[in-house]
Design a protein that fits this description.
This protein has 86 residues and is of the alpha+beta class. It has 2 helices and 3 strands, in the order αβαββ. It has helices spanning 24-27, 45-59; strands at 32-35, 65-68, 75-77. The longest helix is centred in the middle third of the chain and has 15 residues, at 45-59.
Length: 86
């Protein structure tokens, strides 16, 4: 996500950082992660596999579920509250 961008949704629990900087510790306590990273050009397409693999790696062995998405941000679900505006 863009640095300095503020949360302009009703989501009370969210994380704002580069997807490749997310850690297992960051995602503790969340129920699900939606991978909605957008890669629309030949140059950015390899990033889709890289970000998906990173999320799969950091969530491996946890109870957090990983779902695919279609937009350019990820959404994190925690205690029934989620960011659906992405």
């Amino acid at each position: 996500m863009e640095e300095g961008r503020k949360n302009d949704t009703d989501a009370k629990n969210y994380i704002q950082k580069d997807i490749l900087d997310l850690t297992t510790e960051d995602l503790k306590g969340y129920d699900a992660v939606v991978d909605a990273f957008g890669a629309w050009t030949a140059e950015t397409l390899p990033l889709h596999s890289k970000t998906t693999q990173h999320l799969a790696d950091i969530l491996s062995g946890t109870d957090v579920r990983l779902f695919g998405g279609r937009r350019s941000r990820i959404s994190l679900c925690k205690s029934g509250a989620y960011d659906s505006s992405s």
